[in-house]
Amino acid sequence: MKFGQFEIDVFVEQRFKLDGGIMFGIVPKVIWNKLIPADDKNFIPMTTNLYVLKAHGKKMIFDIGLGDNLSDREKKIYNVTEESAMTSGLASVGLNSDDIDYVILTHLHTDHAGGAVTIENGEFVPQFKNAKYIVSKEEWQVATNPTERTSAVYNPDRYQALKNAGQLELVDANSELFPGIKAVFTGGHTEGHFGLEIESEGKRVFYYSDIFPTSWHMPVPYIAATDVFPLQSMEAKRKVLPRLLNENTIVAFNHDTQVTFGKVKEDRKKYRVEPVLEI
Q1: Which residues share a beta bridge with 169?
Q2: Which is it for strands 6-19 and 123-126: parallel, antiparallel or unpaired?
Q3: Which long-range contacts (CB under 8 A, 24 or more apart) does 84-91 make?
Q4: Could you give the CA distance from residue 76 to residue 84 in angstroms, rounded to a whole number?
Q5: Measured distance CA(100)–CA(95) in Å, rounded
Q6: Rounded to 10 degrees, what is the CA torsion of 188, 192, 198, 204?
Q7: Where are the domains positioned within the chain?
Q8: Which one, of 20, 57, 78, lies nearest residue 178 by Cα?
Q9: Which residues of the chain have pLDDT under 50?
Q10: Which residues are 8's β-sheet partners?
Q11: Which residues face 249 on adjacent strands?
Q12: What pLDDT shows up at residue 219?
């Protein structure tokens, strides 16, 4: 999909399942189950949608999915039964891992950063040999020092491999990464979580990662139970939602199984998303 001078594509890296209550927090099951029906174990289907942006002569990928190096424990956490489609997914958009110049990681949870590395000779090494990995300074600090609450979703050994290879670039969570590509601090989901706002010639694509993981998460209180600061997540939503109503803005959803790009509409003070194929 082209917008202005930029082009963005998407592919599914992996399919997985998480507990529906985790994804919708305080929202009762009687409500969210109508939106994304759960199976008999209370799990709902999800995907890792990976977005590839071509801009300024560079190829960038936003978050990088679960990858091919999950531990048995992580496979159980994410209910993964399939292999990573990283290679075939990149090929579907005409690329391979060596073509990627930048991997922009909105945060370092396993379903967003597990694929940053692969295993060679029993050691973690960067998946993308020619890429710089962009991470916020705040996120790096908490991810490399996990607590009892976060140890299940952070694996410091993976991140250290990026640093050891000299491919890590730490940035402020509020900064212009490239002309027309901004990291916008949200916090909430993690201490260093940021969204991406991308604009070219008045056309915009917003990728707010786990602040809006699916198109069903538009209402302000629909916040994952894993968010470390849920009130901060809600404030981030309140701030950006009115801006999403702009006709020239598309939202990209990282975990939605049906909608990868959508336009936000308001109907009687309620937000809804219409799938789109072009801006």
Answers
A1: 134
A2: unpaired
A3: 84/13, 84/14, 84/115, 85/11, 85/12, 85/13, 85/14, 86/13, 86/115, 86/127, 89/11, 89/12, 89/13, 89/50, 90/11, 90/52
A4: 15
A5: 8
A6: 0
A7: 2-275
A8: 57
A9: none
A10: 53
A11: 204
A12: 96
Q: Pull the structure tokens for residue 208.
A: 């707010």
Residue 93 three-state SS: coil
Residues 6+ apart with CB under 8 A from 175: 182, 183
Instruction: Report the predicted TM-score, pTM, of the whole model to 2 decimal places.
Output: 0.96
Cα(59)–Cα(149) distance, integer angstroms: 35
Cβ-based neighbours of 208, under 8 Å, separated by 6 or more = 184, 186, 195, 196, 236, 240, 251
Whole-number pLDDT of residue 267? 85
> If one looks up domain 2-275 in CATH, what number appears?
3.60.15.10
CA–CA separation, 219 vs 212, rounded Å? 9
Number of H helices, E strands in the chain: 8, 16
